[in-house]
Amino acid sequence: MAQRLTISLDAMGGDHGPDVVVPAALHAAGQHPDLHQILVGDEGVLREALERNGAGTGPSLSIRHASQTVGMDEPPSKALRNKKDSSMRVAIDLVKEGSADACVSAGNTGALMATARFVLKTIGGIDRPAISSAIPSIYGHTYMLDLGANTECTPEQLFQFAAMGSVLVTAVNSIDAPRVGLLNIGEEEIKGIEAVRRAAQLLSQSSLNYVGFVEGDDIYTGEVDVVVCDGFVGNVALKTSEGLAKLVGHYVREEFSSSVYSRLAALVAWPVLRRLRSRMDPRRYNGASLLGLQGIVIKSHGGADTYAFANAISMAMLEVKKSVPKRIGHLVASAMADVSERET
Amino acid sequence: MAQRLTISLDAMGGDHGPDVVVPAALHAAGQHPDLHQILVGDEGVLREALERNGAGTGPSLSIRHASQTVGMDEPPSKALRNKKDSSMRVAIDLVKEGSADACVSAGNTGALMATARFVLKTIGGIDRPAISSAIPSIYGHTYMLDLGANTECTPEQLFQFAAMGSVLVTAVNSIDAPRVGLLNIGEEEIKGIEAVRRAAQLLSQSSLNYVGFVEGDDIYTGEVDVVVCDGFVGNVALKTSEGLAKLVGHYVREEFSSSVYSRLAALVAWPVLRRLRSRMDPRRYNGASLLGLQGIVIKSHGGADTYAFANAISMAMLEVKKSVPKRIGHLVASAMADVSERET
Fold first, then answer.
1. Which of A84, A128, A212, B168 is deepest in the core (most CB within 10 A)?
2. B228 near B183, Cβ under 8 Å?
3. Do B265 and B143 belong together in one domain?
4. pLDDT at residue B189 above 50?
5. In this predicted structure, what is the pLDDT of residue A117?
6. What mean pLDDT do residues A128-140 have?
7. Is A253 exposed, middle or buried, given 0-12, 13-18 or 19+ CB atoms closer than 10 A?
């Protein structure tokens, strides 16, 4: 029999709260008989949401009442101070106390990161957690981090991100020595910012499979498995990609509806266009990992729908099965040992 | 009669040198009877290239011999020190001495920026030049800067970029008070890096039409006319977009050739797909401006073809006609005066 997993869900978080989280949980429950989910939030609201979906609590689904909700625009410090009984906080507390193996939230990223860090603490050797997500590439996926948790980073932090990203790729994609690239603006050694140049030195001395500097376009070419950058740059790259994807979608809709012939062509090409849309569907990649914590926390996109949120739940399950936090602790310790050895 | 313009072309620069620059110049000559172009480079090579294209020198096209060439990977400091008779340097010298109104080069960006800055000097009130280019958006174009000349920027530099970008948009797109956004990773005041937050304060006090923070996706939505960021972030955003565009192209080719039906659909949809490709063609946007110099320098993409390089020549002509450097000097002086006034 498979190991039984427990995932706590911040059922009030995100743009849609229980309207998305509850059906997503029911979907996941149907797919994974070994899964126990704890819906965290207002008990009355959650019971109603379950009823609306023709379901109730049971051995695979329970409710844990939480009286507060963190607003999507609430400053992290305020959420941390004033919302000790929020659905987000309680979902993370359940991981801390061992009642859940991981938690998933579509809530406010800043508050989630601050709360997770405060409650779970970072793994030894990790200064700050980072956010990582899979990004489609020509040959598979690239994992990029940090995507916005840390605006400015030291070389040591970038190094830790590289180690954490390597662990994630090994765990999730079963790749033994993931290729790590440092995001920079030129491939020559002379270019780039100081922290990135120094991180490159640390990485070259470590046991990680560091392949060198990469540029923005390499995120999508699949030349590396892990792209490391600070959270400001990572977030801009991610959002820029979202913007360009929207522009392309806009162009496609405009051109395929610009004339009677275009609309006919759209009909004929519909099966192909639908496959294209599905391949580029960001919902498939929903579920960013908050790496570096003593516990597993998955951030769903705030606007996620049921399908997308269910993918975030799957990501949480995968990280539990692969013991990602424990592996990060081991790898960071050994990778840093290599660096210190060569330095002495 | 229209004003006669002279543009010097670094005919040896870029991946293709005279093979692209010479036909592009001939194309531009055919389109603009008021244009005089000076091809700068090895005279023998250039005469041959002209002959191959069935043309020669004349009142609208001359050759200026330069004995050296700057390599695409040559460090800027070396190019500046050792290549005083390079096609790049001489093309810029011609602008300095008033023999040309602007120059265009597809050469090494770092060397071009260093040489242009050394020879032409910056405009009063501008600390460092910046690279700006038009980027297609849902409602038209966004001009983004800096795209890679300055890896780390002070708040004052970001402010100057905003002023330079505003001038460029006003000159090129005839928009009176271009909307300026500062690239950041969250719309709340609390997020982001220190330099960006302080630049926001300067901009709010100035006479520029500053609309606030924007995120990466806003580059493509057209919410603002100018997006301001440091060169590291700008370059990553630009390259990331190039990478995603390649990925989309790859998906489209794969899906439209995956079966007999898909290939038939591609045939039917071909006129629409061709229009789409043309709308997304980066060659249309070739010709980045090196802003902030006492002279007009346009950087063409290194891999530009004839069509793309000819667009860079058109951009140079437009900036000459609109006296972009002079306007930048005026606007920066007046915008900074507003800030100082409010501060006293």
1. B168
2. yes
3. yes
4. no
5. 95
6. 91
7. exposed
Backbone phi and psi for residue A166, each to the nearest 5 degrees, phi listed first = -60, -45
Which pLDDT score, from 0 to 100, does residue A278 have?
86
Q: How confident is the model at residue A189, as a pLDDT?
A: 42
Q: Is residue A342 part of a domain?
A: no
Give the CB-side neighbour count of residue A309, counting CA atoms within 13 A: 33
Same domain, B203 and B247: yes
| Same domain, residue pair A38 and A67 | yes
Inter-chain Cβ pairs, chain A and chain B, closer than 8 A: 184
Domain end call among B264, B282, B300: B282
* CB A78, CB A276: distance < 8 Å: no
Contact of A114 with A125, CB cutoff 8 Å: no
Number of independent structural domains in chain A? 2
Kindly determine whether residue B235 and residue A216, on different chains, have CB atoms separated by under 8 Å: yes
Omega before A225 cis (within 30°)?
Answer: no
Return the closest-CA partner of residue A36 out of A101, A120, A106.
A101
Question: With contact defined as beta carbons under 8 Å apart, do A243 and B218 qualify?
Answer: yes
Smallest CA-to-CA distance from A304 within A61, A70, A30, A107 is with A107
CB-based contact A107:A20 (threshold 8 Å): no
Same domain, B230 and B182: yes
Same structural domain for residues A251 and A205?
yes
Contact B185 A235 (CB under 8 A): yes
In the numeric block, which tokens belong to residue A123?
């793994």
DSSP-H helix ranges across chain A: 18-31, 43-52, 76-82, 87-96, 109-120, 155-173, 194-205, 218-221, 231-255, 260-279, 306-321, 324-343
Give residue-wise pLDDT tens across range A160-195. 999 999 999 999 888 999 999 999 987 444 556 889
Q: Do A220 and B247 touch (CB under 8 A)?
A: yes
Number of residues that this document lists for chain A: 344
The CA angle A276-A109-A22, to the nearest 5 degrees, is 70
Joined together, the tokens standing for residue A321 give 């099965």
B37 vs B55: CA distance, rounded Å: 14
Within 8 A of A272 by CB-CB distance, chain B residues are: 255-256, 258, 261-262, 265-266
Question: Is residue A103 included in any domain, yes or no?
Answer: yes
Is the CB of residue B304 less than 8 Å from the CB of residue B288? no
pLDDT digits (tens, 9 = 90+) for A63-94: 999 999 999 889 888 999 999 999 999 999 99
Q: Which residues of B touch A152 (CB under 8 A)?
A: 193
Are B251 and B121 members of one domain?
no
Question: Considering the domain boundaries, does residue B330 fall inside one?
Answer: no
Domain that holds residue A254: 128-284
Output the pTM of the full model.
Answer: 0.90
Q: What pLDDT, on a 0 to 100 scale, did the predictor assign at position A192? A: 63
